[in-house]
Automatic annotation (TrEMBL):
Upper lineage: Bacteria, Pseudomonadati, Pseudomonadota, Alphaproteobacteria, Acetobacterales
Pfam families: NTP_transf_3, PEP_mutase
Ranges for domain MobA-like NTP transferase: 322-448
Name of the molecule in the record: phosphoenolpyruvate mutase
Keywords on record: Isomerase, Magnesium, Pyruvate
């Protein structure tokens, strides 16, 4: 019951605190905590993937996802079922929105028992009447009798089989137009009845009444808030006011409505999937999210050998290694890279490298090594949000080039591999497509970036990355064969077909060829300062290097303007 059912290997003793304990710690701990809304197994997975420590099982969002109103149109057992999908899909603790408790004290105590059985770590009940109406609808909704509601709280607490189960009492006084005195009176009564925390709700556009409550409440027990309406108040204000936990209550269901609307209307308008393909996650991403690899491994353990299905030979399941060349300083970025390498510049709260590793991981490239150089200690795995990462060091980075960095990873250059510069970002579908190209060495080339430098555009190709290929990019759906590299760099300047984006894929044989070529370059004494275009040019003399064309949806960070673009890149 503790870990996501698909992810937990059998019989692994767990040292992780229970979900009940983790929710209690989150709510009672000294730090401001956050619960992110989820409404389904899938959204629960995405909350965990984003790094949250807990889930808000929102009644509004679950109802909306079922196409229902937030008026108890979904029965409590239907809500319980959704919560169970979430608990199965993620290992996070869930605070379930239990509305009013679906009745009186008796319904609450049964609810608490059933939630505990399903590994739901806590419930929030609100002092209104069944059937409830969403608090943002209408004015002056009737409140439950305070004493009766205290009975619901006491019954829930008396029924909980696990001491750490959390019961949050939600005070609707302010949102229903009652006074601060009434809100305080109710909060006090619910606290005395045994609630572990008070959720004080407000629908004001500013946080005034919440802050006033915080001041008068004086930290008697943890306070949870839901700033859906007063979203513009900086989080720091709540932290300073001593709020225990913030619930981001409905933003995943709202985001999904935006995305589904746009996608459906575009497909309807265009009568084609071509326009949306680059905008949506791949089918492979769905397989990764639902952990199909685990099912395959389990099949090998449990099915009779003769009936184990042949391993699909798609990019979804084959192991692909990654090597990220991240030794460069990025001196053009000035103060941004004074104490860290370019790959660690911040993009919306996370280092560039963390975004890049995320794309690699989602494309199935998980066994990744990062070659560090400049300010290597600044590449901290803890800040990158990935589990296992191998760090290799090019300590001569100041005087050597990319081939020297790649040589640091030569021991890992076996089997199918992806090599990428650490200052590049691209949409996931580009890597998916590169992994699907049937070639031993294939490079991703942007066909829209082919003008020779000096043309005055904001994104001039880097001369050393210019590519000339044996056929130009064609938008025809009939032409799915890769082109072949003819030349790179200065020699491609007269007839450029595009710019290499700093991303290449090798088959196992391609990886072997690269090792051989680098060994030859070492023997000739030219490896130390050579760049990757030089290596690719040499390889191309002996083995075909395929060119996979793309049109945009990537960037590299060389200048401060690039950095601004990267911050908007998604
Ligand atoms: C929910 O998410 O269902 C809530 C929070 O109860 S609110 O919609 O703000 O009432
Ligand atoms: Mg609700």
């Amino acid at each position: 019951m503790e870990a996501a059912t698909t992810a937990a290997p059998p019989h692994r003793p767990s040292t992780t605190p229970s979900r009940f304990r983790r929710l209690r710690d989150l709510i009672e701990g000294p730090e401001l905590g956050f619960l992110m809304e989820a409404h389904s197994g899938l959204s629960a997975k995405l909350v965990e993937e984003a790094g949250f420590a807990g889930i808000w099982g929102s009644g509004l969002s679950m109802s909306a996802a079922l196409g229902l109103r937030d008026n108890n149109e979904a029965s409590w057992t239907q809500v319980l079922e959704q919560a169970e999908y979430m608990a199965d899909a993620s290992s996070l603790p869930i605070l379930l929105d239990g509305d009013t408790g679906y009745g009186n004290f008796n319904n609450v105590r049964r609810l608490v028992r059933k939630l505990t059985e399903r590994g739901i770590a806590g419930v929030c009940i609100e002092d209104k009447l069944f059937p409830k109406t969403n608090s943002f609808i209408g004015e002056a909704q009737p409140l439950a009798d305070m004493e009766e509601f205290c009975g619901r709280i006491r019954a829930g607490k008396d029924a909980q089989p696990d001491d750490d189960f959390v019961l949050v009492a939600r005070v609707e006084a302010l949102i229903s137009g009652h006074s601060m005195e009434e809100a305080l009176r109710r909060a006090e009564a619910y606290h005395a009845a045994g609630a572990d925390a008070i959720l004080m709700h407000s629908k004001k556009r500013h946080a005034g009444e919440i802050l006033a409550f915080m001041e008068r409440w004086g930290g008697r027990c943890p306070v949870v808030i839901v700033p859906t309406m007063y979203y513009s108040t900086p989080t720091e204000v709540f932290r300073n006011a001593g709020v225990s936990t913030i619930i981001w209550a409905n933003h995943l269901v709202r985001a999904s409505i935006t995305a589904m609307r746009e996608t459906a209307s575009r497909i309807h308008r265009e009568q084609s999937l071509a326009g949306v393909e680059a905008e949506v996650v791949s089918v492979k991403d769905i397989f990764a999210l639902t952990d199909n690899d685990e099912l395959e491994a389990a099949g090998e353990r449990y099915l009779p050998a003769a009936s184990v299905p042949a391993r699909p030979v798609g990019p979804a399941v084959r192991p692909v290694r990654g090597i990220v060349l991240a030794a460069s300083h990025g001196a053009e970025l000035g103060a941004y890279t004074a104490d860290k390498p370019k790959c660690m510049v911040d993009l919306r709260g996370r280092p560039l490298l963390s975004h890049l590793l995320g794309v690699l991981g989602r494309a199935g490239v998980r066994d990744v090594a990062v070659v560090r150089g400049y300010c290597k200690q600044a590449i901290e795995p803890a800040r990158l949000g990935v589990g296992e990462l191998v760090m290799l060091d090019n300590d001569d980075h100041a005087t050597t080039g990319e081939v020297a960095s790649l040589l640091c990873a030569v021991e890992r250059l076996h089997g199918e591999s992806v090599i990428v510069y650490g200052d590049v970002l691209f949409r996931r579908y580009i890597l998916d497509a590169l992994l699907a190209v049937e070639a031993d060495i294939v490079i991703a080339v942007d066909a829209l970036r082919q003008r020779a430098p000096g043309g005055g555009s904001r994104h001039e190709p880097n001369p050393r990355d210019l590519v000339a290929a044996d056929k130009a990019f064609s938008a025809s759906y009939l032409d799915d064969q890769p082109a072949r590299l003819v030349s790179m760099g200065e020699r491609a300047r007269e007839t450029p077909s595009g710019e290499w984006i700093g991303l290449l894929r090798l088959s196992a044989r391609g990886a072997e060829w690269v090792r051989e070529e680098m060994a030859s370059m070492q023997a000739e004494g030219i490896a130390a300062t050579a760049d990757l275009p030089a290596l690719l040019s040499r390889l191309n003399e002996r083995h075909p290097v395929a060119v996979h064309y793309i049109t945009g949806h990537w960037l590299d960070v060389d200048t401060i303007t690039d950095l601004a673009d990267a911050r908007n890149f998604s």
